[in-house]
Design a protein that fits this description.
By secondary structure, this protein is α/β, with parallel strands linked by helices. Helices cover about 35% and strands about 15% of the residues. It has two domains: about 1-100 and about 300-320, NAD(P)-binding Rossmann-like Domain (Rossmann fold); about 100-290, Rossmann fold (3-Layer(aba) Sandwich), CATH 3.40.50.720.
Length: about 325
């Protein structure tokens, strides 16, 4: 099949070409999908999209008019796709429901350890010849209470790791997970979890119900000085409310691998430009905030799995008219 790959980076090309083994004809498009770039896929059978491609109704109409019949998502989430418009236009959608839960879970733990032990600050100090320990005091993870919001595959992998640290585990999810319960996790209503947890890590998808799930009221339920980690989707946090919680001291630490307006920033080298996002710039001023650029998924194993599953969706669609992992 002819596949137009949007938001194509060198690593996307490496892993997709290795998985395809010459069976597909790729068009590599560095630009993100939006209504103005959708025409670049003209003549393609499938458009391969990543998390910050804007598959709104206007873009989908251009894709469909150009011959695209399948949206092959290189992600588990599909909140960036107008599902109603896709159905109206007859566009099938395939996604990658699981690639490496451990990759994201391990990155969340890396954020926790870095923030807690001030590794990022210590690294800079040592490079400057400053070996003082003042300001670098952390706490033992052993015996701490960790709240996990969203106990799907990633949340379960995260729980497994934190259990190894000797943490007490609490969870919140509309659907209780037997694997998490077997790890000793106790389910709680969200407000109770927030009130008890020393660390809260978010691992739920972005839906209308979870948008700004962590708003001012929920942040106000958290223990003073608690740590909040988000490696899921940026809009699950109300960023303005988070900044107020940081300023007041309600939040002791914040670790983000995602950001509410990240599509304007992440996956690009902006080191030679002025970042115009004042909210993001404000976050960077806090010494107790650590932000990475949506790299939680970025491991060899995960990239291979994403490429394999994406092309399995394409192959099944070519054979049977339906991707292997359709978006319901």
């Amino acid at each position: 099949m002819r596949i137009a790959v949007f938001s194509a980076k060198p690593y996307d090309r490496r892993f997709l070409e290795a998985a395809a083994r010459g069976t597909h004809d790729f068009t590599w498009i560095e630009a993100r999908l939006d209504p103005s770039t959708a025409r670049l896929a003209e003549g393609s059978d499938a458009a391969c999209l990543f998390v910050n491609d804007r598959a709104d109704a206007a873009a989908l109409e251009v894709l469909a008019a150009g011959g695209v019949k399948l949206l092959a998502l290189r992600s588990a989430g599909f909140n960036h796709v107008d599902l109603v418009a896709a159905q109206r236009l007859g566009l099938a959608i395939g996604r990658v429901p699981a690639y490496s839960p451990e990759a994201v879970a391990e990155h969340a733990v890396a954020l926790i350890l870095t923030l807690n032990r001030n590794i990022h600050r210590a690294y800079n100090r040592v490079r400057e010849g400053n070996f003082a320990l003042d300001g670098l005091l952390g706490f033992d993870l052993h015996g701490r209470t960790v709240g996990i919001v969203g106990t799907g595959q990633i949340g379960t992998a995260f729980a497994r790791i934190l259990r190894g640290f000797g943490c007490r585990l609490l969870g919140h999810d509309p659907q209780e997970n037997a694997d998490c319960i077997a790890l000793g996790l106790a389910y709680r209503p969200l407000e109770e979890l927030l009130a008890e947890a020393d660390i809260v890590s978010v691992h739920c998808p972005l839906t209308p119900a979870t948008r700004h799930l962590m708003d001012a009221a929920r942040l106000g339920c958290m223990r003073p000085g608690a740590m909040l980690i988000n490696t899921s989707r940026g809009a699950i946090l109300d960023t303005a409310a988070v900044i107020r919680a940081l300023k007041s001291g309600r939040l002791g630490h914040l670790g983000l691998d995602v950001y509410e307006e990240e599509e304007k920033l992440f996956f690009e080298d902006l080191s030679g430009t002025v970042i115009a996002d004042d909210v993001f710039a404000r976050l960077l001023t806090f010494p107790n905030v650590l932000i990475t650029g949506h790299q939680g998924f970025f491991t060899e194993e995960a990239m291979r799995a994403i490429a394999d599953t994406t092309l399995a969706n394409v192959a099944r669609f070519a054979e049977m008219g339906q991707p292997l992992h359709p978006v319901a």
